[in-house]
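Subject: two folds for Thursday's group meeting

Dear M.,

Sorry for the delay on this. The cluster queue was jammed most of the week, so I only got both jobs back this morning. I'm pasting them in the order they finished. Each block is the input sequence followed by the predicted C-alpha coordinates. Could you check whether the formatting survives your parser before we put anything on slides? The first protein is the one we discussed after the seminar.
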Amino acid sequence: MVDLKTNVRVRAEGFGITAKSILTFVMLVYDSRQGSGGFALVAFAAGQLAYSVVMFLTYVASFGWGIIRPKRPSSPRNTIGGYFDTEIMQLSFTMTLQSLVKHFLTEGDKMILSSFSPLHDQGGYALAVNYGSLVARIIFQPIEETLRVFFSRILGGETQKKKSDDHRVSLAQSVIMLQSLLSIQISLSIILVIFGSASLPILLPLLLPKQYLSTSAPQVLGAWIWYIPVLAVNGGLEAFLSSVATPKDLNNQSRWMIGFSAIYIGSAIVFYSVGLGDASLVYANVVNLSARIIYSLRYATNFFNKPKIPMFRWQDTLPSRSLCVVSGLSAAVIQLSQRRLKADEIASHLGNRALLNSSVLLHVGVCGSLALLCLGTWWRTSGRYLSFSSFLKGKVE
Protein backbone atom coordinates (compact mmCIF):
# COMPACT_ATOMS: atom_id res chain seq x y z
CA MET A 1 0.00 0.00 0.00
CA VAL A 2 2.74 2.46 0.95
CA ASP A 3 4.75 1.68 -2.22
CA LEU A 4 1.53 1.95 -4.27
CA LYS A 5 2.06 -1.51 -5.77
CA THR A 6 -1.62 -1.94 -6.49
CA ASN A 7 -1.04 -4.64 -9.10
CA VAL A 8 0.55 -6.95 -6.51
CA ARG A 9 -2.27 -6.41 -4.05
CA VAL A 10 -5.02 -6.90 -6.63
CA ARG A 11 -3.36 -10.12 -7.82
CA ALA A 12 -2.99 -11.45 -4.25
CA GLU A 13 -6.56 -10.64 -3.23
CA GLY A 14 -7.92 -11.90 -6.56
CA PHE A 15 -6.20 -15.29 -6.20
CA GLY A 16 -7.19 -15.42 -2.52
CA ILE A 17 -10.90 -14.76 -3.04
CA THR A 18 -10.98 -17.19 -5.98
CA ALA A 19 -9.43 -19.98 -3.89
CA LYS A 20 -11.78 -19.21 -1.00
CA SER A 21 -14.89 -19.28 -3.22
CA ILE A 22 -13.95 -22.50 -5.02
CA LEU A 23 -13.01 -24.43 -1.87
CA THR A 24 -16.10 -23.29 0.06
CA PHE A 25 -18.38 -24.14 -2.88
CA VAL A 26 -16.85 -27.59 -3.41
CA MET A 27 -17.16 -28.49 0.28
CA LEU A 28 -20.78 -27.31 0.43
CA VAL A 29 -21.67 -29.29 -2.69
CA TYR A 30 -20.03 -32.39 -1.17
CA ASP A 31 -21.87 -31.79 2.10
CA SER A 32 -25.23 -31.46 0.34
CA ARG A 33 -24.70 -34.70 -1.57
CA GLN A 34 -23.76 -36.55 1.59
CA GLY A 35 -26.88 -35.19 3.26
CA SER A 36 -25.17 -34.70 6.61
CA GLY A 37 -25.32 -30.90 6.78
CA GLY A 38 -22.42 -30.86 9.20
CA PHE A 39 -19.75 -29.23 7.05
CA ALA A 40 -21.18 -25.72 6.65
CA LEU A 41 -18.98 -24.12 9.30
CA VAL A 42 -16.00 -26.24 8.27
CA ALA A 43 -16.45 -25.07 4.67
CA PHE A 44 -16.48 -21.45 5.83
CA ALA A 45 -13.33 -21.96 7.93
CA ALA A 46 -11.53 -23.82 5.13
CA GLY A 47 -12.37 -21.01 2.71
CA GLN A 48 -10.95 -18.40 5.08
CA LEU A 49 -7.80 -20.47 5.53
CA ALA A 50 -7.39 -20.90 1.77
CA TYR A 51 -7.81 -17.14 1.29
CA SER A 52 -5.06 -16.38 3.83
CA VAL A 53 -2.63 -19.01 2.59
CA VAL A 54 -2.98 -18.07 -1.09
CA MET A 55 -2.61 -14.36 -0.33
CA PHE A 56 0.49 -15.05 1.79
CA LEU A 57 2.12 -17.17 -0.90
CA THR A 58 1.33 -14.61 -3.60
CA TYR A 59 2.99 -11.84 -1.59
CA VAL A 60 6.00 -14.04 -0.87
CA ALA A 61 6.30 -14.87 -4.57
CA SER A 62 6.30 -11.13 -5.35
CA PHE A 63 8.68 -9.92 -2.63
CA GLY A 64 10.75 -13.01 -1.86
CA TRP A 65 11.16 -15.16 1.26
CA GLY A 66 13.57 -12.66 2.80
CA ILE A 67 10.76 -10.36 3.93
CA ILE A 68 9.53 -12.90 6.52
CA ARG A 69 12.91 -13.68 8.08
CA PRO A 70 13.39 -12.13 11.53
CA LYS A 71 15.79 -9.18 11.54
CA ARG A 72 17.47 -7.63 14.55
CA PRO A 73 16.69 -3.93 15.15
CA SER A 74 19.52 -1.49 14.47
CA SER A 75 19.59 -0.44 18.16
CA PRO A 76 19.20 -3.60 20.30
CA ARG A 77 19.01 -1.70 23.61
CA ASN A 78 15.25 -1.10 23.61
CA THR A 79 14.29 -4.60 22.51
CA ILE A 80 12.78 -7.78 23.90
CA GLY A 81 14.99 -10.79 23.23
CA GLY A 82 17.02 -8.75 20.75
CA TYR A 83 14.31 -8.91 18.06
CA PHE A 84 11.19 -7.04 19.25
CA ASP A 85 11.33 -3.27 19.55
CA THR A 86 9.61 -2.26 22.80
CA GLU A 87 7.90 0.81 21.32
CA ILE A 88 6.53 -1.12 18.35
CA MET A 89 5.53 -3.95 20.69
CA GLN A 90 3.53 -1.55 22.86
CA LEU A 91 1.86 -0.09 19.80
CA SER A 92 1.02 -3.62 18.58
CA PHE A 93 -0.68 -4.45 21.89
CA THR A 94 -2.67 -1.21 21.67
CA MET A 95 -3.80 -1.93 18.11
CA THR A 96 -4.67 -5.54 19.02
CA LEU A 97 -6.82 -4.39 21.92
CA GLN A 98 -8.60 -1.91 19.67
CA SER A 99 -9.12 -4.63 17.03
CA LEU A 100 -10.78 -6.86 19.64
CA VAL A 101 -13.14 -4.07 20.66
CA LYS A 102 -13.97 -3.31 17.03
CA HIS A 103 -14.55 -7.02 16.41
CA PHE A 104 -17.20 -7.14 19.12
CA LEU A 105 -18.77 -4.00 17.65
CA THR A 106 -18.77 -5.59 14.19
CA GLU A 107 -20.01 -9.02 15.27
CA GLY A 108 -22.29 -7.75 18.05
CA ASP A 109 -25.28 -7.65 15.71
CA LYS A 110 -25.08 -11.42 15.22
CA MET A 111 -25.00 -12.02 18.99
CA ILE A 112 -28.01 -9.78 19.58
CA LEU A 113 -29.83 -11.19 16.53
CA SER A 114 -29.59 -14.74 17.83
CA SER A 115 -31.25 -13.64 21.08
CA PHE A 116 -34.12 -11.55 19.72
CA SER A 117 -34.89 -12.73 16.20
CA PRO A 118 -36.45 -16.02 15.00
CA LEU A 119 -34.36 -18.21 12.73
CA HIS A 120 -36.60 -17.42 9.75
CA ASP A 121 -35.69 -13.72 9.91
CA GLN A 122 -32.01 -14.31 10.64
CA GLY A 123 -31.52 -15.59 7.09
CA GLY A 124 -33.25 -12.51 5.67
CA TYR A 125 -31.09 -10.25 7.83
CA ALA A 126 -27.91 -11.99 6.68
CA LEU A 127 -28.89 -11.63 3.02
CA ALA A 128 -29.75 -7.94 3.43
CA VAL A 129 -26.51 -7.17 5.29
CA ASN A 130 -24.45 -8.94 2.62
CA TYR A 131 -26.15 -6.85 -0.08
CA GLY A 132 -25.64 -3.65 1.93
CA SER A 133 -22.03 -4.36 2.80
CA LEU A 134 -21.10 -4.62 -0.89
CA VAL A 135 -21.03 -0.83 -0.99
CA ALA A 136 -18.67 -0.71 1.98
CA ARG A 137 -16.34 -3.33 0.53
CA ILE A 138 -16.23 -2.03 -3.04
CA ILE A 139 -16.24 1.74 -2.46
CA PHE A 140 -15.52 2.73 1.13
CA GLN A 141 -12.73 0.30 2.00
CA PRO A 142 -10.39 1.40 -0.85
CA ILE A 143 -11.05 5.06 0.00
CA GLU A 144 -10.23 4.51 3.68
CA GLU A 145 -7.03 2.65 2.89
CA THR A 146 -5.93 5.35 0.45
CA LEU A 147 -6.62 8.01 3.10
CA ARG A 148 -4.51 6.13 5.64
CA VAL A 149 -1.59 6.10 3.23
CA PHE A 150 -2.08 9.81 2.39
CA PHE A 151 -2.35 11.07 5.97
CA SER A 152 0.44 8.79 7.21
CA ARG A 153 2.80 10.10 4.53
CA ILE A 154 1.95 13.78 4.82
CA LEU A 155 1.57 13.97 8.61
CA GLY A 156 3.87 11.14 9.72
CA GLY A 157 6.43 12.23 12.31
CA GLU A 158 4.49 15.35 13.17
CA THR A 159 6.86 16.35 15.98
CA GLN A 160 9.75 16.56 13.51
CA LYS A 161 7.69 18.41 10.93
CA LYS A 162 6.88 21.16 13.40
CA LYS A 163 10.46 22.35 13.01
CA SER A 164 10.40 22.40 9.20
CA ASP A 165 9.17 25.10 6.82
CA ASP A 166 6.60 22.89 5.12
CA HIS A 167 4.74 22.04 8.34
CA ARG A 168 1.94 24.50 7.65
CA VAL A 169 1.64 23.35 4.04
CA SER A 170 1.29 19.72 5.19
CA LEU A 171 -1.44 20.68 7.65
CA ALA A 172 -3.24 22.72 4.98
CA GLN A 173 -3.14 19.85 2.49
CA SER A 174 -4.57 17.50 5.13
CA VAL A 175 -7.33 19.94 6.06
CA ILE A 176 -8.29 20.32 2.40
CA MET A 177 -8.38 16.58 1.85
CA LEU A 178 -10.45 15.86 4.98
CA GLN A 179 -12.90 18.75 4.51
CA SER A 180 -13.36 18.01 0.80
CA LEU A 181 -13.99 14.33 1.51
CA LEU A 182 -16.53 15.06 4.26
CA SER A 183 -18.25 17.72 2.15
CA ILE A 184 -18.67 15.31 -0.77
CA GLN A 185 -19.86 12.48 1.48
CA ILE A 186 -22.44 14.57 3.35
CA SER A 187 -23.88 16.20 0.24
CA LEU A 188 -24.13 12.96 -1.71
CA SER A 189 -25.56 11.23 1.37
CA ILE A 190 -28.57 13.54 1.31
CA ILE A 191 -29.19 12.62 -2.32
CA LEU A 192 -28.70 8.91 -1.56
CA VAL A 193 -31.17 8.89 1.32
CA ILE A 194 -33.88 10.68 -0.67
CA PHE A 195 -33.62 8.73 -3.90
CA GLY A 196 -32.45 5.44 -2.39
CA SER A 197 -35.50 5.29 -0.13
CA ALA A 198 -37.75 6.07 -3.09
CA SER A 199 -36.17 3.48 -5.39
CA LEU A 200 -35.83 0.62 -2.91
CA PRO A 201 -39.48 -0.59 -3.05
CA ILE A 202 -39.13 -0.95 -6.83
CA LEU A 203 -35.69 -2.58 -6.69
CA LEU A 204 -36.44 -5.10 -3.94
CA PRO A 205 -38.58 -7.46 -6.10
CA LEU A 206 -35.69 -7.47 -8.59
CA LEU A 207 -32.85 -7.90 -6.06
CA LEU A 208 -34.33 -10.38 -3.60
CA PRO A 209 -35.57 -13.92 -4.21
CA LYS A 210 -39.32 -14.15 -3.71
CA GLN A 211 -39.06 -16.18 -0.48
CA TYR A 212 -36.96 -13.44 1.15
CA LEU A 213 -39.53 -10.71 0.54
CA SER A 214 -41.57 -12.07 3.45
CA THR A 215 -38.59 -11.93 5.86
CA SER A 216 -36.99 -8.94 7.55
CA ALA A 217 -34.67 -8.40 4.53
CA PRO A 218 -36.67 -5.50 2.95
CA GLN A 219 -36.89 -3.72 6.29
CA VAL A 220 -33.16 -4.16 6.95
CA LEU A 221 -32.20 -2.92 3.47
CA GLY A 222 -34.39 0.13 4.02
CA ALA A 223 -32.46 0.87 7.21
CA TRP A 224 -29.17 0.38 5.34
CA ILE A 225 -29.99 3.41 3.16
CA TRP A 226 -29.59 5.52 6.32
CA TYR A 227 -26.62 3.51 7.56
CA ILE A 228 -24.41 3.87 4.45
CA PRO A 229 -23.85 7.67 4.78
CA VAL A 230 -22.89 7.35 8.45
CA LEU A 231 -20.58 4.46 7.60
CA ALA A 232 -18.84 6.54 4.92
CA VAL A 233 -18.25 9.59 7.12
CA ASN A 234 -17.04 7.50 10.05
CA GLY A 235 -14.63 5.54 7.83
CA GLY A 236 -12.90 8.67 6.54
CA LEU A 237 -12.58 10.24 9.97
CA GLU A 238 -11.25 7.09 11.64
CA ALA A 239 -8.77 6.62 8.79
CA PHE A 240 -7.41 10.08 9.62
CA LEU A 241 -7.37 9.37 13.36
CA SER A 242 -5.56 6.04 13.03
CA SER A 243 -2.95 7.65 10.74
CA VAL A 244 -1.89 10.48 13.04
CA ALA A 245 -2.77 9.20 16.52
CA THR A 246 -0.09 8.52 19.12
CA PRO A 247 -0.19 5.34 21.26
CA LYS A 248 -1.78 7.46 24.01
CA ASP A 249 -4.49 8.64 21.60
CA LEU A 250 -5.17 5.06 20.51
CA ASN A 251 -5.50 3.93 24.13
CA ASN A 252 -7.99 6.71 24.77
CA GLN A 253 -9.94 5.72 21.67
CA SER A 254 -9.99 2.08 22.81
CA ARG A 255 -11.49 3.09 26.15
CA TRP A 256 -14.13 5.16 24.38
CA MET A 257 -14.83 2.20 22.10
CA ILE A 258 -15.96 0.22 25.13
CA GLY A 259 -18.46 2.99 25.83
CA PHE A 260 -19.60 2.95 22.20
CA SER A 261 -20.21 -0.79 22.54
CA ALA A 262 -22.51 -0.13 25.48
CA ILE A 263 -24.32 2.54 23.43
CA TYR A 264 -24.80 0.08 20.59
CA ILE A 265 -26.19 -2.70 22.79
CA GLY A 266 -28.47 -0.32 24.68
CA SER A 267 -29.78 1.26 21.47
CA ALA A 268 -30.46 -2.14 19.91
CA ILE A 269 -32.48 -3.28 22.92
CA VAL A 270 -34.48 -0.04 22.95
CA PHE A 271 -35.22 -0.22 19.22
CA TYR A 272 -36.29 -3.87 19.51
CA SER A 273 -38.61 -2.96 22.38
CA VAL A 274 -40.39 -0.32 20.27
CA GLY A 275 -41.02 -2.83 17.48
CA LEU A 276 -38.44 -2.00 14.81
CA GLY A 277 -37.51 -5.68 14.41
CA ASP A 278 -34.19 -6.69 12.89
CA ALA A 279 -33.70 -3.19 11.49
CA SER A 280 -33.04 -2.25 15.13
CA LEU A 281 -29.50 -3.56 14.74
CA VAL A 282 -28.84 -1.27 11.78
CA TYR A 283 -30.32 1.77 13.52
CA ALA A 284 -28.30 0.92 16.65
CA ASN A 285 -25.18 0.92 14.48
CA VAL A 286 -26.19 4.35 13.17
CA VAL A 287 -26.30 5.63 16.77
CA ASN A 288 -23.00 3.92 17.57
CA LEU A 289 -21.21 5.32 14.50
CA SER A 290 -22.67 8.77 15.14
CA ALA A 291 -21.01 8.76 18.56
CA ARG A 292 -17.74 7.67 16.99
CA ILE A 293 -18.04 10.43 14.38
CA ILE A 294 -18.44 13.04 17.12
CA TYR A 295 -15.35 11.67 18.88
CA SER A 296 -13.28 11.69 15.66
CA LEU A 297 -14.46 15.17 14.68
CA ARG A 298 -13.44 16.50 18.06
CA TYR A 299 -10.04 14.85 17.72
CA ALA A 300 -9.52 16.27 14.20
CA THR A 301 -10.52 19.78 15.34
CA ASN A 302 -8.08 19.69 18.26
CA PHE A 303 -5.31 18.23 16.09
CA PHE A 304 -5.47 20.87 13.36
CA ASN A 305 -6.08 23.80 15.68
CA LYS A 306 -3.14 23.09 17.99
CA PRO A 307 -0.89 25.70 16.34
CA LYS A 308 -3.39 28.40 17.44
CA ILE A 309 -4.37 28.87 13.78
CA PRO A 310 -7.95 27.62 13.29
CA MET A 311 -7.83 25.60 10.08
CA PHE A 312 -10.46 22.86 10.38
CA ARG A 313 -14.12 23.68 10.86
CA TRP A 314 -16.69 20.91 10.55
CA GLN A 315 -19.28 23.55 9.66
CA ASP A 316 -17.48 24.02 6.32
CA THR A 317 -18.39 20.45 5.35
CA LEU A 318 -22.16 21.02 5.52
CA PRO A 319 -24.15 21.13 2.24
CA SER A 320 -25.25 24.40 0.69
CA ARG A 321 -28.70 25.87 1.27
CA SER A 322 -29.52 25.50 -2.42
CA LEU A 323 -28.89 21.76 -2.30
CA CYS A 324 -31.01 21.39 0.85
CA VAL A 325 -33.91 23.29 -0.72
CA VAL A 326 -33.76 21.40 -4.04
CA SER A 327 -33.44 18.06 -2.21
CA GLY A 328 -36.42 18.85 0.02
CA LEU A 329 -38.61 19.82 -2.94
CA SER A 330 -37.47 16.68 -4.80
CA ALA A 331 -38.47 14.51 -1.85
CA ALA A 332 -41.95 16.10 -1.86
CA VAL A 333 -42.37 15.57 -5.61
CA ILE A 334 -41.27 11.93 -5.29
CA GLN A 335 -43.80 11.31 -2.53
CA LEU A 336 -46.53 12.87 -4.69
CA SER A 337 -45.49 10.76 -7.70
CA GLN A 338 -45.50 7.64 -5.56
CA ARG A 339 -49.01 8.28 -4.30
CA ARG A 340 -50.37 8.99 -7.78
CA LEU A 341 -48.60 6.23 -9.73
CA LYS A 342 -48.32 3.58 -6.95
CA ALA A 343 -45.13 2.23 -8.52
CA ASP A 344 -44.11 0.26 -5.42
CA GLU A 345 -47.38 -1.66 -5.31
CA ILE A 346 -47.13 -2.46 -9.03
CA ALA A 347 -43.51 -3.61 -8.64
CA SER A 348 -44.44 -5.81 -5.68
CA HIS A 349 -47.24 -7.42 -7.68
CA LEU A 350 -45.54 -7.82 -11.06
CA GLY A 351 -41.92 -8.46 -10.02
CA ASN A 352 -39.53 -8.35 -13.00
CA ARG A 353 -42.39 -7.51 -15.36
CA ALA A 354 -42.79 -4.16 -13.60
CA LEU A 355 -39.94 -2.82 -15.74
CA LEU A 356 -42.33 -2.81 -18.67
CA ASN A 357 -45.13 -1.03 -16.83
CA SER A 358 -45.73 2.59 -17.90
CA SER A 359 -46.48 3.86 -14.37
CA VAL A 360 -43.29 2.36 -12.98
CA LEU A 361 -41.22 3.72 -15.87
CA LEU A 362 -42.75 7.18 -15.42
CA HIS A 363 -41.97 7.16 -11.70
CA VAL A 364 -38.39 6.01 -12.38
CA GLY A 365 -38.06 8.81 -14.94
CA VAL A 366 -39.26 11.39 -12.41
CA CYS A 367 -36.79 10.11 -9.80
CA GLY A 368 -33.91 10.03 -12.29
CA SER A 369 -34.57 13.57 -13.52
CA LEU A 370 -34.76 14.95 -9.98
CA ALA A 371 -31.59 13.08 -9.01
CA LEU A 372 -29.74 14.72 -11.91
CA LEU A 373 -31.14 18.10 -10.82
CA CYS A 374 -29.84 17.57 -7.28
CA LEU A 375 -26.42 16.46 -8.53
CA GLY A 376 -26.25 19.49 -10.83
CA THR A 377 -27.17 21.79 -7.95
CA TRP A 378 -24.48 20.26 -5.77
CA TRP A 379 -21.87 20.61 -8.50
CA ARG A 380 -22.83 24.22 -9.24
CA THR A 381 -22.87 25.36 -5.62
CA SER A 382 -19.97 23.44 -4.06
CA GLY A 383 -18.74 20.40 -6.01
CA ARG A 384 -16.72 22.29 -8.61
CA TYR A 385 -15.00 24.33 -5.89
CA LEU A 386 -13.54 21.24 -4.21
CA SER A 387 -10.29 21.74 -6.07
CA PHE A 388 -7.16 20.68 -4.23
CA SER A 389 -4.87 23.34 -5.72
CA SER A 390 -7.20 26.31 -5.28
CA PHE A 391 -8.10 25.36 -1.72
CA LEU A 392 -4.43 24.83 -0.86
CA LYS A 393 -3.50 28.25 -2.18
CA GLY A 394 -6.17 29.95 -0.10
CA LYS A 395 -5.31 28.03 3.06
CA VAL A 396 -1.57 28.60 2.88
CA GLU A 397 -1.84 32.28 2.07
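Second protein, same layout:
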Amino acid sequence: MNPTNARADFTGEWELNLERSLLRGPTPKRIAMEIEHREPQLVQRIRLTNAEGAEKRMTFAYETGAETTNSVGGAPARTTARWEGQELVIESWMTTPCRAVYFKDHWSLSDDGRTLTMAHRDGDLAGQISILERCPRSCSAPPQEKG
Protein backbone atom coordinates (compact mmCIF):
# COMPACT_ATOMS: atom_id res chain seq x y z
CA MET A 1 0.00 0.00 0.00
CA ASN A 2 2.42 2.65 1.23
CA PRO A 3 5.97 2.97 2.37
CA THR A 4 6.27 2.13 6.06
CA ASN A 5 6.01 5.72 7.29
CA ALA A 6 3.37 6.95 4.80
CA ARG A 7 -0.22 7.30 5.92
CA ALA A 8 -3.21 5.78 4.16
CA ASP A 9 -5.28 7.94 1.81
CA PHE A 10 -8.93 6.88 2.09
CA THR A 11 -10.09 9.05 -0.83
CA GLY A 12 -12.48 7.24 -3.13
CA GLU A 13 -15.90 5.74 -3.58
CA TRP A 14 -16.64 2.65 -1.52
CA GLU A 15 -19.43 0.09 -1.19
CA LEU A 16 -20.12 -2.06 1.85
CA ASN A 17 -19.68 -5.79 1.29
CA LEU A 18 -22.57 -7.12 3.38
CA GLU A 19 -21.38 -10.74 3.19
CA ARG A 20 -17.94 -9.94 4.61
CA SER A 21 -19.12 -7.44 7.25
CA LEU A 22 -20.41 -8.03 10.77
CA LEU A 23 -22.94 -5.33 11.60
CA ARG A 24 -24.72 -4.44 14.84
CA GLY A 25 -28.36 -3.47 14.39
CA PRO A 26 -30.63 -3.78 11.34
CA THR A 27 -28.93 -4.97 8.15
CA PRO A 28 -29.15 -2.33 5.41
CA LYS A 29 -29.85 -3.13 1.79
CA ARG A 30 -26.83 -1.06 0.71
CA ILE A 31 -24.25 1.41 1.99
CA ALA A 32 -22.27 3.52 -0.46
CA MET A 33 -19.64 5.95 0.77
CA GLU A 34 -17.59 8.74 -0.74
CA ILE A 35 -14.50 9.86 1.14
CA GLU A 36 -12.40 12.95 0.43
CA HIS A 37 -9.14 12.74 2.37
CA ARG A 38 -6.58 15.53 2.23
CA GLU A 39 -4.60 15.17 5.44
CA PRO A 40 -5.49 16.45 8.01
CA GLN A 41 -9.04 16.95 6.62
CA LEU A 42 -11.39 14.03 5.92
CA VAL A 43 -15.02 14.23 4.74
CA GLN A 44 -17.15 11.08 4.73
CA ARG A 45 -20.46 11.08 2.80
CA ILE A 46 -22.63 8.04 3.46
CA ARG A 47 -25.67 6.92 1.49
CA LEU A 48 -27.53 4.20 3.39
CA THR A 49 -30.46 2.31 1.89
CA ASN A 50 -32.39 0.37 4.53
CA ALA A 51 -34.03 -3.02 4.00
CA GLU A 52 -37.30 -1.34 2.95
CA GLY A 53 -35.53 0.77 0.32
CA ALA A 54 -35.64 4.15 2.11
CA GLU A 55 -32.47 6.19 1.63
CA LYS A 56 -30.67 8.24 4.27
CA ARG A 57 -27.69 10.50 3.63
CA MET A 58 -25.15 11.52 6.27
CA THR A 59 -21.99 13.61 6.11
CA PHE A 60 -19.21 13.64 8.70
CA ALA A 61 -16.12 15.86 8.71
CA TYR A 62 -12.98 15.08 10.70
CA GLU A 63 -9.60 16.69 11.26
CA THR A 64 -6.77 14.50 12.49
CA GLY A 65 -5.23 15.86 15.66
CA ALA A 66 -8.26 18.04 16.47
CA GLU A 67 -11.76 17.83 17.89
CA THR A 68 -14.69 18.39 15.54
CA THR A 69 -18.45 18.39 15.98
CA ASN A 70 -20.82 16.44 13.74
CA SER A 71 -24.54 15.77 13.92
CA VAL A 72 -25.95 12.26 14.22
CA GLY A 73 -29.72 12.14 13.86
CA GLY A 74 -29.89 15.76 15.00
CA ALA A 75 -27.78 15.18 18.13
CA PRO A 76 -24.32 16.81 18.32
CA ALA A 77 -21.36 14.43 18.48
CA ARG A 78 -17.85 15.42 19.59
CA THR A 79 -15.27 13.62 17.48
CA THR A 80 -11.50 13.23 17.54
CA ALA A 81 -9.37 11.57 14.88
CA ARG A 82 -5.74 10.49 15.26
CA TRP A 83 -3.24 8.16 13.67
CA GLU A 84 -2.08 5.05 15.52
CA GLY A 85 0.55 3.61 13.19
CA GLN A 86 -1.18 2.91 9.87
CA GLU A 87 -4.69 3.06 11.36
CA LEU A 88 -6.89 6.12 11.63
CA VAL A 89 -8.76 6.00 14.95
CA ILE A 90 -11.98 8.02 15.12
CA GLU A 91 -13.67 8.43 18.51
CA SER A 92 -17.09 10.02 18.97
CA TRP A 93 -19.12 10.93 22.05
CA MET A 94 -22.74 12.00 22.03
CA THR A 95 -25.69 12.16 24.38
CA THR A 96 -29.12 10.99 23.30
CA PRO A 97 -32.30 11.54 25.32
CA CYS A 98 -31.79 8.01 26.72
CA ARG A 99 -28.05 7.75 27.37
CA ALA A 100 -24.47 8.69 26.55
CA VAL A 101 -23.02 6.93 23.48
CA TYR A 102 -19.35 6.22 22.66
CA PHE A 103 -17.93 4.96 19.36
CA LYS A 104 -14.31 4.08 18.57
CA ASP A 105 -13.66 3.20 14.94
CA HIS A 106 -10.32 1.90 13.55
CA TRP A 107 -9.88 2.49 9.80
CA SER A 108 -7.28 0.60 7.79
CA LEU A 109 -6.58 0.15 4.09
CA SER A 110 -5.48 -3.12 2.47
CA ASP A 111 -2.03 -3.27 0.87
CA ASP A 112 -3.55 -3.01 -2.63
CA GLY A 113 -5.75 -0.05 -1.59
CA ARG A 114 -8.96 -1.79 -2.69
CA THR A 115 -10.43 -2.71 0.73
CA LEU A 116 -11.23 -0.35 3.60
CA THR A 117 -11.85 -1.98 6.97
CA MET A 118 -13.70 -0.05 9.69
CA ALA A 119 -13.46 -2.04 12.93
CA HIS A 120 -15.14 -1.18 16.23
CA ARG A 121 -13.02 -3.07 18.75
CA ASP A 122 -14.63 -1.45 21.78
CA GLY A 123 -17.28 1.14 22.60
CA ASP A 124 -21.01 0.83 21.95
CA LEU A 125 -20.50 -0.91 18.59
CA ALA A 126 -17.81 -3.34 19.84
CA GLY A 127 -17.48 -6.25 17.45
CA GLN A 128 -18.84 -4.47 14.39
CA ILE A 129 -16.60 -4.77 11.34
CA SER A 130 -17.50 -3.01 8.10
CA ILE A 131 -15.65 -4.17 4.99
CA LEU A 132 -15.89 -1.71 2.12
CA GLU A 133 -14.61 -2.29 -1.39
CA ARG A 134 -13.40 0.42 -3.73
CA CYS A 135 -15.89 0.95 -6.54
CA PRO A 136 -14.52 0.28 -10.02
CA ARG A 137 -16.88 3.02 -11.22
CA SER A 138 -19.16 5.46 -9.40
CA CYS A 139 -21.13 4.01 -6.47
CA SER A 140 -23.47 7.00 -6.52
CA ALA A 141 -25.77 5.53 -9.17
CA PRO A 142 -27.60 2.22 -8.66
CA PRO A 143 -26.28 -0.65 -10.78
CA GLN A 144 -27.71 -0.70 -14.31
CA GLU A 145 -30.46 -3.22 -14.93
CA LYS A 146 -29.85 -5.52 -17.89
CA GLY A 147 -32.83 -5.79 -20.17
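Two things I noticed about the second structure. The chain has one domain: 12-134. Residues 143-147 have pLDDT under 50 and may be disordered.

Cheers,
T.
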